[in-house]
Design goal:
single chain; 307 residues; alpha/beta; 5-stranded parallel sheet; 11 helices; globular; binds N-carbamoyl-L-aspartate
């Protein structure tokens, strides 16, 4: 039995197969309408979510399966003090696969050790968010036709943004990837990403604080929200939250074929005027999230691709 806890749980080859499957799903949706008939997905969300939880649910429904779960810790027995280990033992009796989001780093890993069904990490604290990364990779591959030889700008909260950590870990496995990491000093990438991932692999990267200067070089700009819920004090959040606001004026500095991604939700970091720019890909990205999660559920449940 396999779980997805970290983007590296799949090899580059397996990711390529998964994205091929997701792309076939995108173009032949009706063909997949019954491949998971009778299967159940449990969504165990101890933290707020719109896209991740609902796209998992939509994915399972699109495959003919059913969904059950909870959308906040308050409405589960966690509020009574139940451990993740006990909860997953019970959920294993009710469902065939589960997606878990938890504010504590490593909670889905603990769950996987006590589970008899595949566990998908749907975001653990400020650590990892592998299914967002699969979505990001599908978006980049669909828009540019490749996952190598790209200059990727990542802007905003690189310290607490789990989507950033997972995306960097996944992208360094492709050739010719360069990063421009754009953030205020206090929100730079954690040192384990710098030393264990970027430096160890000899990846070309710059850490800068100026978005305008970075813009002309980028093939992809990945914007992120300052992660309010991970700050220890509100004053720091208020001071840093509007560090970057991408607007049409800044977009004039970018290449004509650069794409903007954002895992969403957006707060102020992308002005709504940018939504009309053909390079704004974040709503398409959310749509790809459904196809990628359909492909992931099929892969972990070892459901054969229909003819
Ligand atoms: C992200 C998350 O939860 O980490 N959202 C998502 O799943 N699409 C990004 C965020 O909350 O800023």
């Amino acid at each position: 039995m396999r779980h997805l806890l970290n983007p590296l749980d799949f090899s580059v080859e397996e990711i390529s197969q998964l994205l091929d499957l997701a792309s076939d799903i995108e173009h032949n949706l009706p063909k997949y309408a019954h491949v998971c008939d009778g299967k159940k997905l449990a969504t165990l969300f101890y933290e707020p979510s719109t896209r991740t939880r609902l796209s998992f649910e939509a994915a399972m429904l699109n495959l003919g399966g059913s969904v059950l779960g909870f959308a906040s810790a308050d409405s589960s027995s966690a509020a009574k003090g139940e451990s993740v280990a006990d909860t997953i033992r019970i959920i294993s009796c009710y469902a065939d696969i589960c997606a878990m989001r938890h504010p504590k780093e490593g909670a889905p890993l603990v769950a996987s050790q006590f589970s008899s069904i595949p566990v998908i990490n749907a975001g653990d604290g400020g650590h990892q968010h592998p299914t967002q990364t699969l979505t990001d990779l599908m978006t980049i591959r669909s828009l540019t036709g490749r996952l190598d030889n790209l200059t990727v700008g990542i802007c905003g909260d690189l310290k607490f943004g789990r989507t950033v950590h997972s995306l960097i870990e996944a992208l360094v496995r492709y050739t010719g990837i360069r990063f421009v990491l754009i953030s205020p000093q206090e929100l730079r990438i954690p040192s384990y990403i710098r030393t264990d991932v970027l430096d160890r692999k000899g990846i070309e990267y710059q850490e800068v604080d100026n978005l305008d200067e970075a813009m002309p070089k980028l093939d992809i700009l990945y914007m992120t929200r300052v992660q309010k819920e991970r700050f220890f004090n509100e004053e720091d959040y208020i001071r840093l939250k509007d560090s970057y606001i991408l607007d049409n004026k800044k977009m004039q500095l970018a290449k004509k074929d650069m794409y903007i991604l954002h895992p969403l939700p957006r707060v102020n970091e992308i002005s709504v005027e940018v939504d009309k720019d053909p390079r704004a890909a974040y709503f398409r990205q959310a749509q790809y999230g459904v196809y990628v999660r359909m492909a992931l559920i099929m892969t972990l449940l070892e459901v054969a691709k229909p003819c």
